[in-house]
């Protein structure tokens, strides 16, 4: 049917959906699968890009891969027996995401190029209204925010940034048309993205200078090709893959003891990392420059077996002088030397909003979520916020993992959201709103536990707000997190019938 120019916008007459999901990355698609499996199919997914995949669609830099083993970095309800490596590359992870879309027939739910610009709760109707930047309005009984915590690439606020006349590339928005062959390249940053990019860049570029502000802890990455017999075993006996997944889960859980809290295992992990450095870097001066000055776990632990060797290639140099300014020709460090480049790669991370929301969210009585979160985001069990009924967050405040697969945490959140949404629909509720006191006491307990973690041991990281509050990470084992998400305690919620 063709729409006449004077017909009202479709949205104005569209029937509200049961559930609106914002984002078609891992979380949004997983949410749709779990809802579908619970018999809820009246779903709309709004995706701002023109393709699914979220972070794995965007992060296509050379060497992009996951630093959690693939058997754990996938959904337990959709295991992939065919992973080609122990740690898969971004291309294969994206293929897995495409597989989820086709296998679970998710395409019909997704509306691409729909950038949500605001969410508003209509108290009288018990509906959320989402507006998009092309002027559409989509309404739903419940909303799941799955726009991703690391989806906005950030260029640091450096003097002279705009004056640089060469090429600028951000790790999360790679320019595949740029030919690095023979080029003079700078890499700013030495975090998880940089340690994957640098070994690939040195293979192609003329030379690479790496600007390090803080040396990170690096552990070896046991990456290998999966033998064919292993894949056929997993295909024939899915139980064998389940068993491996459980073993990987337990191993990662034990890492919590090393990286979350300061324990004897913390020192063991540091010793292993120092040994890795000593084995791979013979030059004492370089080793000193690469030795971290904070406790392991305070920042994200890096996994790489080829980062240190890459730094020692003839065409690579580590620069530890702080950057003073960018100039038209390159980068000037504080001791006054100008390094000239054709291209600067910014592996400088993401704009992780810890005090705001990606778009205005208006709840009961016109309250605004970013005003409430101005001094640090908080939620009940990381998923619900008092005053914003029927709204579920994925990777909300204090749900980040430092030691285990993000997807393990994600599954707990998705299943919790299904429980809440089922309650809203089955009991025909206008509003299911977490009580403010339940949220407050949950957060008092979380902050008390956070104070004792390595994240608060003095380093600066994207986990913390400017004033040192950790509103990002969950201070415990993934198992603890999963347990708390197993039950939706009705007494913690205010339920308003329609
Ligand atoms: O970003 P980062 P990332 N001047 O913020 C430096 C996930 N991830 O993209 O440490 C100079 O960690 C900054 O220096 P410093 C993972 O959760 C996962 O690498 O702040 N330097 C740092 O070295 C990870 O935690 C995978 O002193 C500046 C770097 O830039 C998250 O993404 C792979 C600077 C930024 O490191 C982010 O990782 C990749 C400045 N002004 C990423 N500003 C997996 O394998 C910043 N830096 C799953």
UniProtKB/TrEMBL annotation:
<dbReference type="GO" id="GO:0004497">
    <property type="term" value="F:monooxygenase activity"/>
</dbReference>
<dbReference type="Pfam" id="PF13738">
    <property type="entry name" value="Pyr_redox_3"/>
</dbReference>
<protein>
    <submittedName>
        <fullName>Monooxygenase</fullName>
    </submittedName>
</protein>
<dbReference type="InterPro" id="IPR051209">
    <property type="entry name" value="FAD-bind_Monooxygenase_sf"/>
</dbReference>
<keyword id="KW-0503">Monooxygenase</keyword>
<keyword id="KW-0560">Oxidoreductase</keyword>
<dbReference type="InterPro" id="IPR036188">
    <property type="entry name" value="FAD/NAD-bd_sf"/>
</dbReference>
């Amino acid at each position: 049917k063709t729409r006449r120019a004077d017909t009202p916008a479709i949205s104005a007459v569209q029937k509200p959906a049961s559930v609106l999901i914002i984002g078609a990355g891992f979380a949004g698609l997983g949410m749709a699968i779990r809802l579908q499996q619970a018999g809820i199919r009246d779903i709309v997914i709004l995706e701002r890009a023109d393709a699914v995949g979220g972070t794995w669609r965007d992060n296509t830099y050379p060497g992009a891969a996951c630093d959690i083993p693939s058997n754990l970095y996938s959904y337990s309800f959709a295991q992939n027996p065919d992973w080609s490596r122990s740690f898969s590359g971004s291309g294969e992870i994206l293929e897995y995401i495409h597989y989820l879309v086709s296998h679970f027939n998710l395409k019909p739910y997704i509306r691409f190029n729909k950038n949500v610009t605001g969410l508003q709760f209509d108290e009288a109707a018990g509906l959320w209204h989402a507006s998009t930047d092309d002027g559409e309005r989509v309404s739903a009984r419940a909303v799941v925010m799955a726009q991703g915590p690391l989806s906005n690439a950030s260029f640091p606020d450096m003097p002279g940034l705009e004056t640089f006349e060469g090429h600028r590339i951000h790790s999360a928005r790679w320019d595949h048309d740029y030919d690095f062959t023979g080029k003079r390249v700078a890499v700013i940053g030495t975090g998880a993205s940089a340690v994957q990019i640098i070994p690939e860049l040195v293979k192609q570029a003329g030379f690479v200078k790496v600007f390090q502000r803080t040396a990170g802890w690096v552990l070896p990455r046991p990456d290998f090709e999966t033998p064919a017999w292993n894949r056929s075993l997993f295909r024939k006996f899915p139980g064998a893959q389940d068993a491996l997944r459980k073993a990987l889960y337990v191993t990662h859980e034990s890492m919590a003891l090393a990286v979350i809290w300061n324990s004897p295992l913390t020192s063991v992990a540091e010793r292993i990392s120092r040994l890795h450095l000593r084995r791979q870097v013979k030059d004492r001066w370089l080793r000193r420059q690469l030795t971290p000055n904070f406790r392991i776990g305070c920042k994200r632990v890096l996994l790489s077996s080829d980062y240190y060797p890459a730094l020692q290639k003839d065409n690579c140099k580590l620069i530890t002088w702080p950057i003073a300014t960018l100039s038209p020709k390159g980068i000037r460090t504080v001791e006054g030397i100008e390094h000239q480049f054709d291209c600067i790669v910014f592996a400088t991370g993401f704009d992780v909003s810890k005090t705001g929301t990606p778009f205005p969210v208006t709840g009961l009585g016109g309250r605004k979520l970013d005003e409430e979160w101005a001094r640090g985001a908080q939620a009940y069990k990381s998923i619900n916020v008092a005053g914003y009924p029927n709204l579920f967050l994925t990777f909300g405040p204090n749900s980040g993992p430092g030691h285990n697969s993000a997807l393990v945490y994600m599954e707990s959140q998705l299943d919790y959201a299904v429980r809440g949404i089922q309650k809203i629909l089955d009991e025909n509720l206008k509003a299911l709103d977490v009580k403010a006191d339940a949220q407050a006491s949950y957060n008092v307990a979380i902050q008390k536990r956070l104070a004792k973690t390595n994240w608060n041991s003095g380093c600066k990281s994207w986990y913390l707000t400017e004033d040192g509050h950790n509103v990002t990470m969950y201070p415990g084992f993934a198992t603890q997190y999963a347990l708390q998400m197993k039950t939706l305690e009705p007494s913690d919620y205010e339920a308003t019938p329609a």
